[in-house]
Amino acid sequence: MKKIFSKTLSIIISTLIILSAVSVANIFTVSADTTDSMVYPGGEVKVTYSFAKDIWCTPCYFFEGKFDTNVLEFKNDENHWSIPPMVVPHDGYVSAAASSAYGVEVKQGDKIISYYYKVIGETNVNDIDFGFIQFQLYDDNGVKLDTSYMTYSVEILSRGEEPTTEPATTEPQIQYGDVNHDGILSIQDATEIQKFGVGINTPEIGSDLFEIADVNDDGGISILDVTCVQKYLVGGYKDTGLLGK
Fold first, then answer.
1. Max alpha carbon distance in the chain (Å)?
2. What is the CATH number of domain 23-158?
């Protein structure tokens, strides 16, 4: 009978430990007090843990506060409480612990400790979970207090330098046939192309002007290009080379 009771008690304790671990993973999230919560490399974020309720005596605590190592790097801490804590940074979380000192009551809003983080990657602060991996809080009588007694706030001290994006450059669109570059295809262009075809001021092969004048795209400038321009201006013809494309 004793063995059965002992085994049952062991199962109950194990279950409570598992449930406690699950609840710690989803405690609370306090967003940054700002409408624009984006930060960039070189910026700085401050996370402050505080008491959320009055406690009649000074408690002792131990907790591990999470942070995202992909975008943040732990810098240092700042103690706000009467009891100096032991702070140890780890990969992805920072642990803090302090023992009890009798006679000091805790009031709601009393700050405990702040962590300062350097921003190493662009991110939205509201997307970062600074909650607890582990959490333990006891009063002077050894009574365990739940996570509702603690909270945290996030402050953006500096945003860092927002990356600038160069505007996309587009290649200027060639208007075939417009050899006088007035933005309009006209009979004047046909006349100039006709001159090119007979050797008057003929542009160099491969130049931009040569490409514009070669409207039928046959690799040369001739009366055929002039005819394409004339047909295009009259309208109703399909064989106008590159014009209108």
1. 116
2. 2.60.40.680
